[in-house]
Specification:
Blueprint: E1 3-6, E2 23-26, E3 33-35, E4 40-50, E5 55-60, H1 63-69, E6 71-73, E7 78-80, E8 87-94, E9 100-102, E10 107-115
Antiparallel strand pairs: 1-4, 2-10, 3-9, 4-8, 5-7, 5-10, 6-8
Length: 143
């Protein structure tokens, strides 16, 4: 269970279907916000939470908003760490050619709660060889 404080009048984030990985986050705005093309803005949600250690919340764009209106997130996925206690804010960007209005209560992003592990470093002078080697950025073929 995740402890959550909801200062907005909107319902808590919820999964829309039984197979959903993400819960929708809603904008909490005193008045609609208009984003001009390429403008970005932090949109408040009114949500504050305490994730258990070993968990993060990943904030991701909603595919419908991205394809239909050109709204996405500046950093995606964004990460909310387990020791963060501030308001969940969503960094929205308008990638379309037209102004886009975000209304109070609109579903603006999705949040996925995921486990993580912290890694340690082992200093070595050479890495183990693999068949791929240093190949990247399309080096494994096109199909």
């Amino acid at each position: 269970m995740v402890q959550i404080v909801n200062k907005s009048p909107h319902q808590l984030p919820e999964y829309q279907t039984a197979g959903s990985a993400g819960m929708d986050l809603r904008a909490w705005l005193p008045q609609p916000v208009t984003l001009q093309p390429m403008e970005r803005r932090l949109i408040p949600t009114g949500l504050y939470m305490a994730l258990p250690q070993g968990y993060e919340a990943q904030i991701r764009p909603r595919s419908g908003l991205a394809i239909k209106r050109g709204l996405s997130l500046v950093n995606t996925p964004g990460t909310i760490d387990s020791d963060y206690r501030g308001e969940v804010m969503v960094p929205v960007i308008n990638l379309s050619r037209e102004p886009q209005v975000i209304a109070d209560g609109e579903r603006i992003a999705q949040m996925v709660i995921a486990r993580y592990e912290q890694a340690g470093w082992e200093m070595v002078t050479q890495l183990e060889e693999t068949s791929r080697g240093a190949g990247g950025f399309g080096s494994s073929g096109t199909l």
